Amino acid sequence: MGDIMLELDERYGEGSFWYLNPKNYCRPMYKKPKEEREEYGIGMAGLEETAIEGMKSIIDTKDEDPEGFKSEMEGLSATMIEMAPGQVIPLEDAKKVVDIAQPLVKIDCICRRMTRATLEEEDCRSCLGIGLGMFRWEMVPERYKGGAEFISPEEAKKFLEFWNKKGMVHTIMTFGKTIEGAPYIGGVCNCDYPDCIDIRFRNDYGIKSLMKGEYVAKVDYDKCSGCGTCVKRCQFGAIKKEVTTNKANIDMFSCFGCGLCKETCPESAIELVERNSFPALRDEW
Amino acid sequence: MMPEIVIDKEKCTTPFECKKCLQICPQAVFMVLPTGMHTFRENEPEEYKLLAVFRDKCVFCNDCVEVCPVGAIQVKIILGGGE
Ligand code: SF4
Ligand code: SF4
Ligand code: SF4
Ligand code: SF4
Ligand code: SF4
């Protein structure tokens, strides 16, 4: 998996992270011939069908057969990784993304719709669709059931901040691949456990359809007051308060680099450091 | 220990509208999925299917069975998860 991320950044990042390269948003996708575009499925169409088929086959697996269940899960995971690897990104990077990729569209969260049957109110839609594929979504209203609202980059930044405050993890979501083979980036999501299917798959089943971010969080013990605010924010169980030292302790192997802890620290004691700067964490995706 | 969660489709006809079990389950075991996608119209309430996708996480609390207004769910314990 380390290879996948290194390859993404090296081949498609052009000196930066792959998701900060404007070329990976949409345009290359539209250079594909029509048949190929349909094969990959712009937006969610193909993905939805595959996911639904995958879910159904999990359910059809004989109930008394845990091994079958496991192998079905693994099969689904392979499909998810192939079709739509996502990655955790911190708020700062999410804000950069909305500056380089448009249009930006507030839509209902599809995961929560499937796991908790929620329909989000107009002022609290929590998913952000990105790119020209969004225009095609209108053809299939089921996808944006509950409405779609086109917003400006400035509005999108406020929207991201709003969900960050509430404790949601930002993730880059991809759907299919662009003509150069880079994942086609189709959304910035605001996710949490257990209702986000990607976080669920990753946390509970180790399915890497959601990859760790390009950063890891590090605590400055001199600044940390041990208030414990950050502990409640971590969706990945990476922080605890060390009783003896009365400081926050982050397991950097478990950290996904979402930065939620950092955003909330009253002492600014947490820093996001590039994953690649720690030799031991470079292959931890 | 893999549970067997049986959902009676004849009784549970509009799971997205009802959503009681989906929202009460402490382990978020269930998912409701559209059975198809149409151009220019949303799915009818009947065009959804309830699935116990994450059933290996079920703790047999029976909340879903009790909350279901039409008695559509059965949760069976299979001891040992064996053959
Ligand atoms: S990835 Fe996150 S925001 Fe997007 S649909 Fe899933 S839970 Fe919702
Ligand atoms: S929020 Fe900041 S000051 Fe408080 S425990 Fe966490 S790192 Fe320390
Ligand atoms: S430790 Fe902080 S940055 Fe790392 S996953 Fe937890 S909340 Fe996110
Ligand atoms: S028995 Fe409890 S844990 Fe199991 S599916 Fe029903 S509500 Fe969820
Ligand atoms: S509570 Fe019963 S009727 Fe309602 S969605 Fe669940 S299984 Fe269907």
What are its keywords?
heterodimer, A: 285 residues, alpha+beta, Alpha-Beta Plaits, 2 domains, seven-stranded mixed β-sheet, two-stranded antiparallel sheet, 11 helices, globular, B: 83 residues, two-stranded antiparallel ribbon, 3 helices, 19% strand, elongated, binds iron/sulfur cluster, 4Fe4S_Fe_S_CS (chain B), 4Fe4S_Fe-S-bd (chain B)
What does this structure look like?
The complex is a heterodimer of chains A (285) and B (83). Chain A is α+β, with helices and mostly antiparallel strands and 285 residues long. Chain A is 37% helix and 19% strand. Chain A has two domains: 207 residues, no CATH class; 67 residues, Alpha-Beta Plaits (2-Layer Sandwich), CATH 3.30.70. Chain A has a seven-stranded mixed β-sheet with strand order 4-2-3-6-5-1-7. A two-stranded antiparallel sheet of chain A has the order 8-11. In chain A, helix 4 runs antiparallel to helix 5 and helix 6 runs antiparallel to helix 9. Chain A is globular, with a radius of gyration of 19 Å. Chain A starts with a helix and ends in an 11-residue tail after the last strand. The relative contact order of chain A is 0.15. Chain B has a single domain, classed as Alpha-Beta Plaits. Helix content of chain B is 17%, strand content 19%. Chain B is built from three helices and four strands, in the order βααββαβ. Chain B is elongated. The chains are: A alpha+beta (285), B alpha+beta (83). Chains A and B meet through helix 4 and helix 7 of A and strand 2 of B.
Structural domains of chain B: how many: 1
One letter per element, helices H and strands E, the order of chain A comes to HHHHHEHEHEHEHEEHEEEEHE
Derived structural class of chain B: alpha+beta
Number of helical stretches of at least 4 residues of chain B: 3
Number of strands of chain A: 11
Unreliable spans of chain B: none
**Portion in helices of chain B:** 10-25%
Number of domains of chain A: 2
The most extensive interface between chains reads: A-B, 28 and 34 residues
Biggest sheet of chain A, in brief? 7 strands, mixed
Tertiary shape of chain A: globular
Estimated helix fraction of chain A? 25-40%
The neighbouring-strand order within the major sheet of chain A is 4-2-3-6-5-1-7
Outline of chain B, from the CA principal axes?
elongated
Order of helices and strands of chain B: EHHEEHE
> How much strand content do the residues of chain A show?
15-25%
Q: What is the CATH level 1 assignment of chain B? A: Alpha Beta
CATH architecture of chain B: 2-Layer Sandwich
Q: Give the class of chain A from helix and strand content and strand pairing.
A: alpha+beta
Please give the alpha-carbon distance between the first and last residues of chain B: 11 Å
Pfam family, one (chain B): Fer4_21
Protein name (chain B): 4Fe-4S dicluster domain-containing protein
GO molecular function, one term (chain B): metal ion binding
Keywords (chain B): 4Fe-4S, Iron, Iron-sulfur, Metal-binding
